[in-house]
Amino acid sequence: MLDTGPDLSTGLFSHIDFSNGAVAAVSGGSDSTALLLLLKQHLDKTAPSAKLLAVTIDHGLRQGSADEARTVAKLCADRDIAHRMLAWSGAKPSTGLPAAAREARYQLLASAARAEGIGLIVTGHTADDQAETVLMRRDRNDATRDEGRGLAGMAPATLHDWRDWIVRPLLGVRRDALRDFLRRQQVGWAEDPTNADEAFERTRMRAALAGEAGAQRMNDALALAARQAGDRTRLGGEAARLIERFASQPAAGLIRLDPALLGAGADRAAVYALRVLLATSGGIAFLPDQARGEALFARLKAGFLCATLSRTVVDFRRAGIFLRREMRGLPAAAATIDGAIWDGRRQITLNDAGGALLIAPFGAMAAKRLAVGRDETPPSLLRAALAAEPGWLQAVEKVGPEPDWPTSQGFAASPVVAPFARFLPSFDLAPARAVAGLIGAAPLPALPLRGPSAG
Ligand SMILES: Nc1ncnc2c1ncn2[C@@H]1O[C@H](COP(=O)(O)OP(=O)(O)OP(=O)(O)O)[C@@H](O)[C@H]1O
């Protein structure tokens, strides 16, 4: 699996479709600098007309970051590679800084890619990063909480914002091999001082994996990640088939599960499917935890119930098992911007009147007045689901004419698959696609990979 041969670029990129170009995310560290040069070699050989843009984000978080960005710019100028430096200018939170920096970084990389008509971002994550990630997750016991999904590590490709692919071609390559390559090329790199700071969990893990002593642990961690990735992909495929067979959507915001799901003899996949659907209905980016999903599934097997999990009301009655967003905690009436995600569940497209609109939950009173229920779905459930859908009010004047959802002229709301809307690892493509089909979300863009890693 680990490639340490002299011509690293062979085989690293041949499974990736670069026909729409690529943005290379280059921090100036060894991994991403090597990524850039290897990719350039590959494209020169195989697709010289493909667009390549190197992008460096200056997070403005430590001294020297702007100098590092300038060093990358110089390297790019020498090698005839287009380069952009982008600064993270937003407010920096006092807690959760690394996560906020990562979020901002991907937003900036995606906007640079879109500006050039590129839909693919490549990063320099290595086998070392993968092993560290997996072992840190195992030490934190994330595995028991989520059935080992996280132990699959980083996916070879991840869809960002349901639009831009992030591809990690170096996940099978050791950092040492990349550094040897750079030395042979006589190209230097920047060392991030935080990588030496033992206060960070990742630094300590890196030290534990160093040298001969760490080599076996590293290989074991990578083998574990590969096994877990296979398991996660298979389980996702089974869950997708269950969703296609047993789930339907009688109305926007209302999912019906055929109770036959409970006796389908595929409990593990059914629990997974249930967790994905709960997060989708509730507009939550994370799946409810495994133990709660299993407990709910066991209760459903025992008979009719009404329960709430992941902001979703689960209502099992004679007509079926119904999932809908609970009314509690819906967003208050507020102006919104075009393209914003409302309540984690609906992407809002504003029409002309944008500025004057407040988006608000449709509400139980308004839902009550509408004629609903032409099929066997209980009208009370249709109304309850409708009440939690977005409606609109006129912002400036007094409350405007009665909201006329779902044919409002003010805005359109299209469903998003909440747990996968921001980041969709390629392991989870099958359930994401199944849920998108179920709720009418935009279809997934094609995966830019060929071969087994295409999932
Ligand atoms: N400042 C930056 N500018 C451009 N790309 C960057 C920058 N920082 C990191 N990257 C990209 O992300 C890859 C991983 O970097 P690193 O491991 O430092 O970040 P991370 O926060 O762990 O990443 P991630 O959040 O993507 O897991 C790099 O190889 C590079 O491709």
UniProtKB/TrEMBL annotation:
Residues 23-207 form the tRNA(Ile)-lysidine/2-thiocytidine synthase N-terminal domain. ATP binds at S27, G28, G29, S30, D31, S32. GO terms for molecular function: ATP binding; tRNA(Ile)-lysidine synthase activity. GO terms for cellular component: cytoplasm. Its EC number is 6.3.4.19. It catalyses: cytidine(34) in tRNA(Ile2) + L-lysine + ATP = lysidine(34) in tRNA(Ile2) + AMP + diphosphate + H(+). It is found in: Cytoplasm. It is an enzyme of class 6 (ligase). The keyword Transit peptide does not apply. The keyword DNA-binding does not apply. CDD domains: TilS_N (cd01992). Transmembrane segments: none annotated. Pfam families: ATP_bind_3. Belongs to the tRNA(Ile)-lysidine synthase family. Ligates lysine onto the cytidine present at position 34 of the AUA codon-specific tRNA(Ile) that contains the anticodon CAU, in an ATP-dependent manner. Cytidine is converted to lysidine, thus changing the amino acid specificity of the tRNA from methionine to isoleucine. The N-terminal region contains the highly conserved SGGXDS motif, predicted to be a P-loop motif involved in ATP binding. PANTHER family: TRNA(ILE)-LYSIDINE SYNTHASE-RELATED. This is tRNA(Ile)-lysidine synthase. It comes from Mesorhizobium australicum (strain HAMBI 3006 / LMG 24608 / WSM2073).
